[in-house]
Design a protein that fits this description.
Blueprint: E1 12-18, H1 24-37, E2 43-46, H2 61-67, E3 72-77, E4 80-85, H3 92-99, E5 105-109, E6 118-122, E7 137-141, E8 151-152, H4 157-168
Parallel strand pairs: 1-5, 1-6, 2-5, 6-7, 7-8
Antiparallel strand pairs: 3-4
Helix pairs in contact: 1-4
């Protein structure tokens, strides 16, 4: 007799994008706190262009395994879990479906060029607005006037959280 497993429901994925120092972490972290207070349990994945951040303290068990050739090492402790993985950078979708399929929401920061993901642009710098070239940008955070249909002020965290929840539930 074959056993069939129910395919896990994929989480709703949204990422905050913008130019360097636009305030992505500030906005996203404040919105995550509001979503958490409202009963959601969002997972967060941050993307970076920086390299060398995966190094572990020399001589730790994690470092020993990485130096032995392991591509991925996970440390599970009573107070949390940490993972170091070397190699190519996975997409936000790959990370979400592999590690966060039990979450209903995954919030990304970065992943500006990822396709198939809902995005909210943070643009406080007055630089070229990304939303004009990317139809997957469903919201804009800016204090400047904009013709984007879903524009929020830079401190409008509650309404941004409402918007994300409405998108999760298929409302506009």
């Amino acid at each position: 007799m074959a056993l069939f497993r129910k395919k896990p429901k994929l989480p709703y994925i949204i990422t905050f994008i913008g130019w360097h120092n636009s305030g992505k972490t500030t906005v996203a972290s404040r919105v995550v706190a509001i979503l958490k207070k409202r009963g959601l349990n969002p997972a967060v994945v941050k993307s970076t262009k920086e390299e060398g951040l995966l190094a572990q303290a020399f001589g730790t068990d994690t470092d020993i395994y990485l130096r032995s050739g392991a591509d991925t090492v996970m440390l599970a402790a009573p107070d949390g879990t940490s993972m170091v993985s070397r190699g190519t950078k996975p997409s936000l979708t790959e990370l979400s479906t592999t590690y966060f399929s039990n979450f209903e929401l995954v919030v990304g920061e970065g992943f500006k060029h990822e396709k198939g993901i809902a995005k909210i642009e943070i643009n406080r710098s007055g630089e070229h607005p990304l939303w004009k070239d990317d139809p997957e940008i469903i919201g804009l955070v800016s204090d400047a006037p904009s013709s984007h249909p879903f524009t929020f002020g830079s401190l409008d965290f509650e309404n941004i959280a409402d918007f994300i929840i409405s998108q999760m539930h298929g409302q506009n």
